[in-house]
Design a protein that fits this description.
Elements lengths: L6 E5 H9 L2 E5 L2 E4 L1 E6 L6 H10 L6 E3 L3 H14 L5 E6 L3 H4 L2 H9 L4 E7 L33 E4 L6 H12 L7 E7 H5 L1 E5 L6 E3 L8 H12 L4 E5 L1 H5 L3 H11 L3 E3 L14 E4 L6 H9 L2 E5 L5 H4 L10 E6 L2 H4 L5 E4 L2 H11 L7 H21 L9 H9 L7 E4 L4 H8 L8 E3 L8 H16 L5 E6 H6 L3 H7 L5 E6 L4 H9 L23 H7 L3 E5 L2 H13 L4 E6 L25 H14 L7
Parallel strand pairs: 2-11, 4-5, 4-6, 6-7, 7-9, 8-9, 12-13, 12-15, 13-14, 15-16, 16-17, 18-19, 18-20, 20-21, 21-23, 22-23
Antiparallel strand pairs: 1-10, 2-3
């Protein structure tokens, strides 16, 4: 055992890296490094000190060279999501614009409750060389800078002003990232001079530490109240969110549903809690959901919401449920468990579902209710089969999804994000295995797809290197952030990327039209500042970054190309045009509230405003 009085003299940067290299966690009986490494772009704010320290630990903490700080953050978030928040990666960026580029990624990780450690350069603590390159000067507050912006998008934020501070701050950051109820990104601002300052650290600080994820037991009174309420239900349903997977409670959720005979609907984040053919799986819920789940939600009298933050796309802006329905919020986070006057059941999902099942022993939902739910799902399955059928109208997202879905291995991972594809994947994807779907819709962030796919692939290669990471992206998202095609080729982390080109931001054009407005500035063809629209050759662009790439025209061509991509050992990009107006999934949508003009002289806009106002009457008024 280390002598508690023994010390070692290190710089702040050296101490941070050494500490991270000695943090472990046991996952499925196997001890692993808690930090899987990091993503970094060096600049004057982090290369002299932190960069030097990371070099000395390059074999233990692999550092992936990013192309863009925002995409590094997306990759780190996707890595953590694959590992169910049991492992994380850090991102390091230089002072100024490098760090500022991480803001969007931090917001994504915060909204999705994902751990990510940001080690970012900061201005000099001494202020002797001020103002320095890339420093923002606030004339009446010299302590304020770019890094303060991260307070709004971090679960833990600190600026290291003395080397000794990390003895408290670094464990606190890790504790936040591993807290099931408060999980999210942690930010450490590292002033350029403080990074290199030395301190005599107690060597015990660097002793090996093995972490575990806390499993909170429910309160007995809350448990009894939830059980009483659920046992009174004539038309119960379960909403299964992403927290079910983070708690590793899929088996417990399934057993609870089977024992109690309660239908289960999935959120977007919980999209792979059940396989497609489980008889109690009634489909995805909400704005991007299914007729089956939404029909049952409208009739349910008691709803057990497990591991979900009940976002508006899940709740139909709180119109998806009967106003008289009772909600039980089973969640490790107090904030989420108590939403909309829910009966809170605060606790770890895996542990609490077992205790709730024991408390409810003997209860079974009425058979006619369950049979009606199954019939609704059968009808929805028929709709999806036709909706995704090749040749069902012009090329569409749904057809491409159906074609690829039929060729996937059970453990292949699918990644999608903002735009039209989250709705189409959520509604039409047939889950082949648990935990294989990553649709980023917590922050609904375009550009996540390829970067997130790269981060997921890094994680997947640690466990399932023989399976594929398959990415659906539109042309709009591709143009926003595509440089990690190059990253994946450089790092030999193969991706299969499908670029479905509909000529711009077609899903927002659809919303624009649905709200009674004319197409404007969404599709390339409808931008008045573009005199001569033209189509990007995405295949050539991807090939220029080292990928194998081809363009296909038909679903039959897509099938053959996808099989070639599966057989390839290198990142493979397939591009195809889809129709911007036709082929959208028309069924399965609940009402969704968007802002509309109260005063307007356009009949279509006024009609849409009236419809929105009428829909608002159905909203639950709970806080």
């Amino acid at each position: 055992m280390t002598n508690k009085d023994e010390t070692i003299r290190l710089t702040t940067a050296q101490a941070i890296v050494r500490y991270l290299a000695n943090q472990f966690i046991v996952i499925d009986g196997k001890e692993q490094l808690l930090c899987g490494g990091g993503f970094g772009i060096f600049g004057h704010g982090n290369v002299p000190c932190l960069g030097e320290s990371l070099y000395d630990h390059r074999d233990v903490l692999p550092l992936y060279r990013g192309q863009n700080e925002q995409s590094m953050g997306f990759a780190a978030a996707a890595y953590a999501k694959y590992h169910l928040r049991q492992k994380f990666m850090f991102c390091t960026a230089s002072a100024g614009p490098g760090t500022a580029n991480l803001l969007t990624a931090a917001a994504l990780a915060h909204a999705n409750r994902l751990p990510m450690l940001m080690l970012c350069g900061d201005t000099f603590l001494t202020r002797l060389p001020d103002p320095v390159l890339q420093q923002l000067e606030h004339f009446n507050n010299p302590t304020l800078g770019v890094n303060d912006a991260f307070k709004a998008v971090s679960r833990y934020w600190d600026r290291i002003t003395h080397p000794a501070q990390i003895i408290q701050s670094l464990p606190a950051a890790l504790s936040t990232m591993l807290d099931p109820a408060d999980c999210g990104p942690a930010f450490l601002g590292l002033p350029q001079d403080v990074q290199g300052w030395a301190y005599d650290y107690p060597t015990i600080f660097f002793d090996k530490k093995v972490h575990h994820i806390r499993r909170q037991a429910p309160d007995e009174l809350d448990l009894a109240a939830a059980a009483t309420l659920l046992k009174s239900a004539k038309r119960p349903m379960i909403i299964a969110g992403g927290g079910v997977q983070y708690s590793k409670a899929v088996a417990e959720l399934t057993e609870f549903a089977e024992t109690s005979n309660i239908p289960v609907a999935e959120t977007i984040a919980g999209r792979a809690n059940m396989v497609v053919d489980h008889p109690l799986n009634i489909g995805p819920l909400g704005v991007t959901g299914s007729n089956s789940a939404n029909a049952i939600a409208e009739q349910a009298d008691v709803i057990l919401a497990v591991g979900t933050r009940l976002q508006d796309f899940t709740t139909g802006s709180w119109t998806a449920f009967d106003k008289a329905a009772k909600i039980i919020g089973l969640n490790v986070g107090r904030h989420d468990a108590s939403k909309h006057l829910s009966q809170p059941l605060i606790g770890d999902a895996k542990r609490t579902l077992v205790e709730l099942s024991n408390t409810m022993a003997g209860y079974s939902a009425p058979s006619d209710w369950v049979e009606s739910a199954k019939k609704e799902r059968t009808t929805w399955d028929d709709y999806v089969a036709n909706n995704t059928r090749s040749g069902n109208g012009p090329n569409s997202y749904a057809q491409a999804i159906g074609t690829v879905n039929g060729l996937m291995d059970g453990r292949d991972r699918v990644v999608a994000a903002a735009g039209g594809l989250p709705a189409e994947v959520t509604a039409n994807w047939k889950t082949l295995d648990i935990g294989t779907v990553d649709v980023e819709f917590g922050f609904s962030c375009m550009g996540y797809e390829i970067a997130g796919g790269w981060g997921a692939r890094i994680a997947q290669c640690e466990n399932e290197a023989d399976k594929d990471t398959v990415i659906f992206t539109g042309d709009g998202s591709y143009l926003m952030l595509n440089s990690d095609i190059y990253s994946s080729v450089l790092s030999q982390k193969k991706l299969i990327i499908l670029v479905l080109d509909n000529g711009g931001f077609a899903v927002i054009n659809k919303l624009q039209n649905n709200m009674g407005a004319e197409s404007f500035n969404n599709l390339i063809a409808d931008c008045p500042t573009i005199p001569e629209p033209f189509t990007v050759d995405f295949a050539s662009h991807a090939a220029a970054m080292g990928a194998t790439a081809e363009t296909v025209e038909t679903m039959a061509d897509l099938k053959e190309a996808f099989l070639r991509a599966k057989a390839s050992d290198k990142t493979y990009v397939i591009t195809m045009k889809v129709d911007p107006y036709e082929g959208w999934t028309q069924e399965g949508h609940t009402w969704w509230e968007v802002g509309t003009p109260q005063v307007n002289d356009k009949p279509g806009v006024n009609a849409a405003h009236k419809e929105v106002e009428e829909g608002r009457e159905r909203q639950r008024r709970g806080i």
